[in-house]
Specification:
Shape: elongated
Radius of gyration: 18 Å
Largest sheet: 2 strands, antiparallel
Strand content: 5-15%
Helix content: 55-70%
Structural class: mainly alpha
Strand order of the largest sheet: 1-2
Distance between the termini: 34 Å
């Protein structure tokens, strides 16, 4: 029987669903769960910034009449980069073997390449 790793309560519902899918599919160590939480939080931050950009636009006019990028543009960019890097660090894009009934261990493709 596998242990449950509930999603942090502050995550948005779609992100909690993603968390559950990842934790069901992969056998994650405690430090991986922390990285997964950071990735989930980065995703939620990017989505929140995207929502503001969609309603307010990408720029605003400052007090001198010059267009400036909204702060949310940087927040979205930084959050997307953080998410991509954390998912890469977790190596979540590897396909688990379908013949095993249990979630596979998290094995890095980089470690296998360095062992050669």
């Amino acid at each position: 029987m596998t242990k449950q790793n509930p999603a942090p309560s502050h995550l948005k519902a779609p992100t909690k669903k993603w968390w559950r899918a990842v934790t069901d599919e992969f056998d994650l160590e405690p430090h991986h769960l922390r990285l997964l939480q950071l990735a989930a939080e980065a995703w939620d931050s990017a989505q929140a910034a995207r929502a503001v950009i969609q309603t307010e636009g990408m720029t605003f006019v400052d007090r001198f009449g010059s267009p400036r990028a909204r702060p949310e543009v940087g927040i979205e960019r930084d959050s997307r980069l953080a998410f991509a890097r954390l998912v890469r660090e977790l190596d979540l894009d590897c396909a688990p073997p379908s013949s095993t009934p249990r979630p596979p261990a998290l094995n890095s493709n980089r470690r296998a390449a360095n062992a050669r």
